[in-house]
Amino acid sequence: MKNKEDSKKIASAIKKARGEHPELTEALDLLTKLTEISFEEISPNSENISWEKLDEGFPVIDKRLVPKDISPLHKRFNEIVEILIAEDKNGASDIVAFFEKEKLFKKLIEGVLMGQYNFPKEFTHSKPITLFAAGEALLPIIDGIKKSDPPPKNLHLWEESYCPICGAMPNISAIEGDENRLFLYCSRCAQTWNFRRLVCTHCGEDDQQKLQYFHAEDNEIHRVYVCDTCKHYLKSVDKREKTTVIPRLEDVATIALDIIAQREGYKRETIDFVGLILMDYETNK
Ligand SMILES: [Zn+2]
Ligand SMILES: [Zn+2]
After folding, report:
1. In the beta sheet, which residues pair with residue 181?
2. Are 66 and 110 in contact (CB under 8 A)?
């Protein structure tokens, strides 16, 4: 079961965000619904975990960690799709029906887990929603891996811009501690890891002439770092001023910065929760 303390912490943080951002009520309602789906973590067979992969730049997750019985993941996928497209019942049931065959669903989650999935030609529904829901469906496995005592030595040496546990890209970064170190937060599983400062997480650009940042006039804690080489951006929070960061909530609460960055022609790296909200914003504009 998801840790009760964590759920409480998230619920109270969402409540606070509601007060501060009445304009985000809809997005926060959706986030609340997603965080309320409980799940049992799935402990991996320890023989199938290779922490050494981290030393070679590969995330820990791989196909061998998918359990034989994937029905709990399948159920979770269906629930998430239904929450995300609640306003269009047919849209949701079309996606659920498409992946009803276990074999097809297994291919989908394995593809998402390996960072590469090719939709069948006949799939004509929302690809971003499907990919996001499949990523969320993997959380019971990901949490199981995290509980299997990752050796801190291997984790601390991780230098890539994607998550060492699940391979997803970060959705937010934070500057922390007295040494002003930069940490990235995984958009899928909230894992955090240390990363070099002043380097683009998308393309690795480190020429300072190509990297810039901006922030809202009245808020210097939240910034957007943009790269003019690849035209991607990543938001950042100065955690020296704030005690805790719940990455997905922080991401939602700073959506105004995404809108500005995208207007300026910069792209967001991830199809994640806020990525989906922004797509809605685009179509409703
Ligand atoms: Zn992750
Ligand atoms: Zn770049």
Report:
1. 176
2. yes
Distance (Å, whole) CA 121 – CA 107: 14
Of 132, 78, 128, which Cα lies nearest the Cα of 102? 78
Q: How confident is residue 1, by pLDDT bands cut at 50, 70 and 90?
A: very low
- Residue 67 near residue 166 (C-beta atoms within 8 A): no
Q: Which residues of 192-231 are buried (b: 16+ CB within 10 A; e: fewer)?
A: bbebeeebbbbeebeeeeebeeebeeeeeebbbbbbeebe
Beta strand pairing call for 170-176 and 267-268:
unpaired
Ligand nearest to the CA of 189: 1
Q: For domain 159-284, is the CATH number 3.40.50.620?
A: no
Query: Could you state, in order of their start, the residue ranges of all structural domains in the chain?
Result: 39-146, 159-284
Which ligand approaches the C-alpha of residue 135 most closely?
1
Give the tokens for residue 193: 């890891």
pTM: 0.92
Bridge partners of 185, per DSSP, are 172, 192
Distance 273 CA to ligand 1 centre (A): 14
Structure tokens at 95: 């996606």
Task: Compute, in angstroms, the gap from residue 200 CA to the centroid of ligand 2.
Answer: 5
CB atoms within 10 A of CB 147: 11
For 105-196, list the strands marked E by DSSP: 170-176, 181-186, 192-195
Matching residue, tokens 């683009």:
200
Does the pLDDT value for residue 263 go beyond 90? yes
Tokens of 8: 């409480």
Token code pair at residue 90: 């047919």
Tokens of 61: 């997750």
CA of 168 to the centre of ligand 1 (A): 5
d(Cα 143, Cα 158) in Å, to the nearest integer? 19
Task: For 142-186, write each residue's pLDDT tens digit.
Answer: 999 999 988 888 888 899 999 999 999 999 999 988 788 999 999
